[in-house]
Amino acid sequence: MAARGRDLYAILGVRPDATEEEIKRAYRKLARELHPDVNKDPRAEERFKEVNEAYQVLSDPARRRQYDLFGTTEGVPAAAGPDLFPFGDFGDLFDTFFGGFGARRPRRRTRAERGRDLFVELELDFEEAVFGARKEVEVDTLEECPRCRGSGCEPGTFPSRCTRCGGLGEIQDVTRGLFGTVMTARPCTACEGTGEEIAAPCRQCRGDGRVPARQTVVVEVPAGVSDGMELRVAAAGQEGRMGGASGDLYVSLRVRPHPVFERRGQDLHCTLRVPMTLAALGTDLEVPTLEGPERLRLEPGTASGTVVKFKGRGVPHLGKRGRGDLYVRVEVETPRPASREERELLERLARLRGDLPAEPGLTGRLRRRLERERAGEGREGQAGAGP
């Protein structure tokens, strides 16, 4: 009988509008955690009793209605339907949480086992990563044994009942506890819980049903992948044991760098070196792209550091439409005079543009040349001045 003032919903950790299934689920969880045979905390037994009393009330529709209206269940008899444990009896409780209580039907395992996942690395050229490719990789795996066809038994023989567990698939231990005799069970290690053992293992696979093999797997690399990305090839890993599903193959991609382009996300970047004379005069040049060269018009006086964008010439978006862009950075090369004639031309250009420094900072050779030119102009002016 629920004491007045206690919040039964709070004891079970559910809301007042919880459904019968939610109440039942909350009780199962708490009963598993607080049972005295599992939880040795001295307060667990008292808490376990509170949870049971709360469930007795809230699992009975009539008593729950009485409690919701008046905060007590006094005067309302317990119904015969829901009992203390919603598992049928203590045997079901232990069977659900602790491996069994009393007689029950053993659960056999199957020898079928999923194959392991495999991992390989795949190197790609830069263009293959950008546009996609169809590649082949070699993997060391396990495949069905051709001698026993995956059964693990020598041809002409079959599995027999396990002599250790008698075909149950588990070993049972009986102990005495607070509530009487408790039976726990653990899988049989001799037959791996299957209840059957192989008396005559296959000589080729030694009973495993699989043998080592090397296989070639085709990998479809989508356009737009990047270095370090991982692809999964379903069911391309180890073959399952005894009819189990095959594992997967995970392919880690390694992309070789490109000699011209640098990738930044889905965009490409490169540098175009242009002589100073062409940058000053303007010209038409060919710019490299992944699809081939394209024409670029340089306007006269193009400065170093100018960036030109080629829309849609970058990397395709992975799994989506569209591509990134290509950015070309113009780098103007400053020439170093290789001959006297080149130097004179540059000096003449500097004088025409007024780029020469003030006379105190002139180099000795240039200063002497300017002095000779001035002296020559002075003599010409004197000769031309007549009476």
Keywords:
3-stranded mixed beta sheet, 9 helices, 4-stranded mixed beta sheet, single chain, 26% helix, 387 residues, elongated
Tell me what the structure shows.
By secondary structure, the protein is of the alpha+beta class. The protein is 26% helix and 25% strand. It contains nine helices and 15 strands. It has helices at 8-12, 20-34, 42-58, 61-70, 90-97, 126-131, 276-281, 340-353, 364-384, and strands spanning 118-124, 133-144, 160-161, 170-177, 180-187, 196-197, 210-221, 230-233, 249-255, 262-264, 267-275, 283-287, 294-298, 307-310, 326-333. A four-stranded mixed β-sheet has the order 10-11-15-14. It is elongated, with a radius of gyration of 44 Å. The N and C termini lie far apart (144 Å).
What order do the helices and strands come in, and which of them pair?
Blueprint: H1 8-12, H2 20-34, H3 42-58, H4 61-70, H5 90-97, E1 118-124, H6 126-131, E2 133-144, E3 160-161, E4 170-177, E5 180-187, E6 196-197, E7 210-221, E8 230-233, E9 249-255, E10 262-264, E11 267-275, H7 276-281, E12 283-287, E13 294-298, E14 307-310, E15 326-333, H8 340-353, H9 364-384
Parallel strand pairs: 1-9, 11-15
Antiparallel strand pairs: 2-7, 3-6, 4-5, 8-9, 10-11, 12-13, 14-15
